[in-house]
């Protein structure tokens, strides 16, 4: 049984798309062939910078604002001199180095002593890490390092596929420019080429945040961020724990390119279906490489 969500078989997907475009004078044979490529072309397994750059050919216009802190280097100074941000960097590195394990309770008093800071400052730092997705805290409970089960990962991908698919459909329906999304894809490819896992995961997150931001729907964005921010924080934790390089992300560049290509084609239903289809690939690959 497939672990995917709403997975549409090859024949059914093409039949459904063919019915929607039948009789539309704008849609030509070339587009229908492109639909088949977007949905059916096998994901390449080659690795290395050359493969990445060959798969990632896109525009270089625009810019993408930074939306995540997962790409911070351990030697980088905090973005401001505030104590809580400095403490957050140190606690984040304790998590990423494995000193604090997934699911482990974070005792504020202990870390206040270890870091030479007031307990209230540690609490404020933990709030930053909660926002960054590395820490969870239920009402009236102690903070714990994020831990996602396979079931939670599957559920996350099920919902984010629907949300990002909806965002892609709105982008096409409203004819929104996608230069910033193309730049995000280019930056992802360059990060893969540099073989910097922290940078790669940060750029992947920025690409998907860009999709969620573009429709201008605050409810769509808010619910999407609740899913992808912890997911990519946990991805970084697992990748560093496994000492992975960037090679698992090389074939994913092509899949991100498919999303951009589908949006460019200007068919809302196609864009939505391709995003769902590709997100299913992402989930399967995640469970294969970074799951438990």
Describe the structure in your own words:
It is a single chain. The chain has 292 residues and is mainly alpha-helical. Helix content is 63%, strand content 1%. It folds into 2 domains: 24-68 and 148-289, Up-down Bundle (Four Helix Bundle (Hemerythrin (Met), subunit A)); 83-145, Orthogonal Bundle (Arc Repressor Mutant, subunit A). The chain is built from 12 helices and 2 strands. Strand 1 (135-136) and strand 2 (144-145) form a beta hairpin. The longest helix is centred in the middle third of the chain and has 24 residues, at 150-173.
H-E order: HHHHHHEEHHHHHH
> How many individual β-strands?
2
Q: How many discrete structural domains?
A: 2
Calculate Rg over CA atoms: 20 Å
- State the strand order across the main sheet: 1-2
Query: Sheet bearing the most strands, described?
Result: 2 strands, antiparallel
The average pLDDT value, as a whole number, equals 80
Instruction: Determine the number of helices (DSSP H or I, runs of at least 4 residues).
Output: 12
* Alpha-carbon distance between the two ends: 19 Å
Outline: elongated
Uncertain stretches: 1-29, 43-81
β-strand amount = under 5%
What is the CATH top level name of the largest domain?
Answer: Mainly Alpha
Proper CATH architecture of the largest domain: Up-down Bundle
Compact description:
This protein has 292 residues and is mainly alpha-helical. The protein is built from 12 helices and 2 strands. It has 2 domains: 187 residues, GntR ligand-binding domain-like (Four Helix Bundle (Hemerythrin (Met), subunit A), Up-down Bundle); 63 residues, Winged helix-like DNA-binding domain superfamily/Winged helix DNA-binding domain (Arc Repressor Mutant, subunit A), CATH 1.10.10.10.
